[in-house]
Amino acid sequence: MIPAPSPSTASDKIVSVRDLKFTYEGGIQALKGINLDIRRGEYLAVVGGNGSGKTTLAKNINGLLRPTSGTIMVNGRSASDLTVAQLARIVGYAFQNPDHQLFCSSVVDEVRFGPQNMGFTQEDISRKVERAIEAMDLKGQRDQPPLSLTLGERRRVSIASVIAMTPEVFILDEPTTGLDAWETDDLMASIDRLNQEGRTVILITHDMNLVAKHAKRVLVMSEGRIVLDSDPGGAFSDLELLLQSKLVPPPVVQLAHRLSGLGVSRETLSPGELVSRLMLGGGEAK
Amino acid sequence: MTGFIDLYTEADTFLHRMDPRVKIVAVLLVSILGLVLSSLYSLLVLLAVIFVLLFLARATFSRTVFALKFVIRFMVLIILLWPIFDPSGTPVLASLGPVKITEPAIWRGVTSAARVGCLATVWYILMFTTSQRDLVRALVKLGLRFDFGLALAISLRFLPTLSATIDSIKDAQRARGLELDKGGLLRRARNYVAVLVPTIVSALRAADLLSLALQSRAYGAKADRTYLCDLKMRRVDGVALAVVVALLIIPVFAKFVLQVHI
Fold first, then answer.
1. What is the ipTM of this complex?
2. Alpha-carbon distance A171 to nearest alpha carbon in chain B (angstroms)
3. CA gap B13, B5 in Å, rounded
4. Which domains does chain A have, with CATH numbers?
5. Which of A59, A62, A101 sits opposite B173 (nearest CB)?
6. pLDDT tens digits along B166-225
């Protein structure tokens, strides 16, 4: 069991990655030297084209993959000293495909599975489960079989089952793929709340709209390297780099770039911002 | 995992180009030959020929070793166990209570091991040089119903996919704190439910989708179907078949008609 970090010894950095390299068995080098510090409570988006190494990085952080070389510190301890089950108490990972984990006959059982593995007490488990079900808006579905739910609901169940383990860091792998705009908004609102409660959120995604709307820090990955690490505005100001990394910024960002001759900031992220910047005479609005 | 399921390695050798039907029949005939031969020397010659063919099929060393690992273990086991359970013959080399180790029994063990080696490795020639697609096509041409052939092809095709899904499911459950290899037998079996249920569900979903995809491409619209790549026997294939048949007939004739120990 991992001792809970006491406030005095708990470092500000929850995840710290140094010179991480990872090569798959077949010889494909997926990570070519990653250096990264994530502070407690950050809202981080990891973006990049398919095969850029996003998921490989995430799986190294929660121990499903072990580094070929380099070190990963999680909550002040070396990840290599911890089993996947021990790491899961600190780093929760919601997989892209919820159907790869659902197997119980009711939502509530499904959500219980993780905390039960962690060995919490019964009351503790019940409390965590109820909180997770509430956080993911699943009260109405609590006794239904998870596999009969819609994709959006199944994804909520899979995320709730991670929340119930009360990790400090949440890694969400493409949580909105296949969801409609409403489902996406609802889900992202719940994820935003997690972050507001002080949890660290790492969002792996292709969807640049999500990044613009929700993340506070963006890592752009390309061919196994972090090519950019900045706030969303900064990340979108370098169109060339984004395109090289197989990413297309949201239309409003592209429009702001076209209008930069009029003095509109290249760091504009939302339609509202664009309008106010235009109305207030562009560049001065900051 | 894929290496285990599909041994086929792409190359352009006469064995790769050979009609898969001829290869299947030839391998069957050589297997029968392995059963007919009873002297150690002729079995060793046959084994040597099979290894030359494996070499000609450009089976890479690492894959051959991988494939042979199981066979060799089995052969070693036969060589070790045979003399212990076969007390017949003289001279007796050693004895311990009821167990007698005799010299002829040791040779019989080695001979059986060589025979098992022949029977197993000859099939590797087929597996190394024939793609699964060709294999199924040949079976259908040899009289297997097309539906069965297709089902076989699909199962072979989906094995690697299924194994990737299982890996992903295992990862997903490990990330929820499941420790698959912990606890006693019962506990472990229970742990595997968390992997088994999602596996079965996703396999059923995949099967459902696949059947829709097949139907939307008019599968089963006509009982008779045509083939884009039809198998054709070339003269070389005929010659190869004739050589293998001769290889079988000569020893059979020698053994059963001329009563030669071969």
1. 0.84
2. 11
3. 22
4. 13-247 (3.40.50.300), 250-286 (no CATH)
5. A101
6. 999 999 999 999 988 887 888 888 889 999 999 999 999 999 999 999 989 888 887 777
